[in-house]
Amino acid sequence: MGRKRRAQQVKTLDLAMQVGGPTHKHLKASPHVLAPALLIAVTAITFLPTLFNDFTNWDDNINLTENPLLIPPTWWGLWQFWKAPFENLYVPLFYTSYFVDLLLGGGVPRASITHAINVLLHCTNVGLAFWLICYLLDKLADSTDLRAHTGVSRVVACALGASVFALHPLQVEAVAWATGRKDLLAGFFTLWAFARYLRYTESRSSAAASPRAAFLRECAGLALFLLA
Questions:
Q1: pLDDT tens-digit profile of 106-127?
Q2: Sign of the C-alpha dihedral, residues 127, 191, 58, 70?
Q3: Crossing angle, helix 181-203 and helix 211-227, to 10 degrees?
Q4: Residue 45 domain-assigned?
Q5: Distances in Å between the alpha carbon of 160 and those of 143, 144, 171, 187, 194?
Q6: pLDDT per residue over 28-79, tens digit each?
Q7: Side-chain half-sphere of 190: how many Cα atoms within 13 Å?
Q8: Which residues contact 202 (CB under 8 A, 6 or more apart)?
Q9: Domain total in the chain
Q10: How far apart are CA 69 and CA 86, in angstroms?
């Protein structure tokens, strides 16, 4: 009777370990999800007050609120930004993003929408910065003694590095100022181009097996860099 009970206990323990295996792996991987999510949440909360900002007369009027090519928003007006410079500055994506703001606002400039998109762009850039730091740190760890450090400690280091990018006072102007949108867009495409370049360099070893894929990655990285 005792042997049967012990055998049953062993089976129960084995089953628990089998069930617990994936859970343990999930817990090990969770910092890679929780850290950037927490970082983005902190960033959004930090810049939440900017949603209550209004437009200023420091270029916001020239670029958006009193821009004759945007008010009212028309496809013809949008095309003018792509065809030639406006106010001696050729930044068509910048004005295209304002065009989207106006469509979301019913054709009227709404400061809350513009500032919300600025915060969203900055949070996206923070996520890209986190990914880039993690990628570079993992590559560094493969060739140094950093391999001895746990995955959690690396994620914490990446989060700390990305938090400097996210919350540095220099970011306030770009996020809180409606016209700062162009800096956020430039940062977004620059970070994305850098990420694509790193992916391209990683795939060069397999370029002979898939030259078309490597070429497309290179073109994508170049296009993103030009858009920035």
A1: 999 999 999 999 999 999 999 9
A2: negative
A3: 160
A4: yes
A5: 22, 21, 16, 19, 20
A6: 446 678 889 999 999 999 999 999 999 999 999 999 999 999 999 999 999 9
A7: 11
A8: none
A9: 1
A10: 9
226: in domain? no
Structure tokens at 211: 């030259």
Secondary structure class of 208 (helix, strand, coil): coil
Helices (H), 47-91: 60, 75-83
Q: What is the pTM of this model?
A: 0.80
Residue 67 sits in which domain range? 31-173
Find the angle CA(24)-CA(30)-CA(32) to the nearest 5 degrees.
135
Q: What is the pLDDT of residues 200-221, one digit of tens each?
A: 777 665 545 566 776 776 677 6
CB count within 10 Å of CB 154 equals 21
| Region of 53 on the Ramachandran plot (φ > 0 left; ψ -120 to 50 alpha; else beta) | beta
d(CA 146, CA 161): 16
148, part of any domain: yes
Which amino acid is residue 46, in one-letter code? Answer: T
Q: Longest Cα pair distance anywhere in the chain, in angstroms? A: 91
- Residue 194 in domain: no
Dihedrals phi, psi of 89, to nearest 5 degrees: -135, 125
DSSP per-residue string spanning 84-108:
S-BTTB--HHHHHHHHHHHHHTTTS
